[in-house]
């Protein structure tokens, strides 16, 4: 129970369905004030109090589990290291993979619980053959199956998502009807451990001397130096704002970050059309259900990939290599960066995911 409306209603529904429910709030910050202040739905003392009040209204036991050290190592440190390597991480995927459905689930099973239920918008289904599948939620605008694409078959067998069949406005109305004070609490959209939403400033402060370079050049595709920067961690592929180049491109069009080289500190910029990619490759493959054998190819109208948490679906041909995925995009995508996740779908079903290591630009 994060302290938000979704997990509160999920707990209420599980309790009403006859399950023996215990509310768990995760203390993820060694010092809650150092991560975030204000009611944003994650990580603060206020959120813990909101979760406790919701548990009291529902009538279930409530505990706080301190996973701050594990969270710092597996999520925060991973976030910093990935940015320092010139890549763009998604900390929510890492949190789901290593904290909520690994550390929490392992502890829950050891204590005799059957499953972890959360307020994520997704749907777990069991086939007639007994296989488990992860599917998109009914509410496409709130669907969170992308950030759950790192869950494996065993984790899915012990996961419940009670809100997968309900649109978000209906969830808020239900919360109000149940007397839950979080019914109108705003959703959390920012990175929970970046207090003011300024990721670049946060990385500058935290990385310090750990950064592989403390500045470098901003160049165009011809190699001409256009400006200088304080560190590659302040950039991500596809970024337009904050480049501070001082002079416009010869054609007057905006420039975008095309490439980041953390060792030399070089950031390459160019026109938007040069962001288009038609192929991505990834490692750290995770299967949401039965694993696919190397050599398997997925193709057809129903096969798509999603490359951002709130991004569009792209039709694709997916090949399973040895511990890798190779994805050819039928419709190109813009601004895709190494470090992001590629999540593979067959219709509404999540097949699996991988961490993007390489992309191929259409212009190349």
Automatic annotation (TrEMBL):
Residues bound to ATP: 26, 119
GO molecular function: ATP binding; tRNA binding; tRNA-uridine 2-sulfurtransferase activity
tRNA-specific 2-thiouridylase MnmA-like central domain mapped to chain residues: 207-270
Catalytic activity: S-sulfanyl-L-cysteinyl-[protein] + uridine(34) in tRNA + AH2 + ATP = 2-thiouridine(34) in tRNA + L-cysteinyl-[protein] + A + AMP + diphosphate + H(+)
Coiled coil, from the record: none
Subcellular compartments: Cytoplasm
UniProt xrefs under Pfam families: tRNA_Me_trans (PF03054), tRNA_Me_trans_C (PF20258), tRNA_Me_trans_M (PF20259)
Single biological process term from Gene Ontology: tRNA wobble position uridine thiolation
InterPro entries documented for this protein: MnmA-like, MnmA-like_C, MnmA-like_central, MnmA-like_central_sf, Rossmann-like_a/b/a_fold
Top-level class of the enzyme under EC nomenclature: transferase
Annotated ranges, domain tRNA-specific 2-thiouridylase MnmA-like C-terminal: 283-356
Keywords in alphabetical order: ATP-binding, Cytoplasm, Disulfide bond, Nucleotide-binding, RNA-binding, Transferase, tRNA processing, tRNA-binding
Ranges for region Interaction with tRNA: 142-144
Record site feature (Interaction with tRNA), residues: 120, 340
Keyword Disulfide bond listed: yes
EC number: 2.8.1.13
Disulfide feature: 95-192
Gene Ontology terms: cellular component: cytoplasm
Known function: Catalyzes the 2-thiolation of uridine at the wobble position (U34) of tRNA, leading to the formation of s(2)U34.
PANTHER family documented for this protein: MITOCHONDRIAL TRNA-SPECIFIC 2-THIOURIDYLASE 1, TRNA 5-METHYLAMINOMETHYL-2-THIOURIDYLATE -METHYLTRANSFERASE
Cross-referenced NCBIfam families: PRK00143.1 (NF001138), trmU (TIGR00420)
Similarity section: Belongs to the MnmA/TRMU family.
Protein name per UniProt: tRNA-specific 2-thiouridylase MnmA
Biological source species: Nocardioides albidus
Encoding gene (name): mnmA
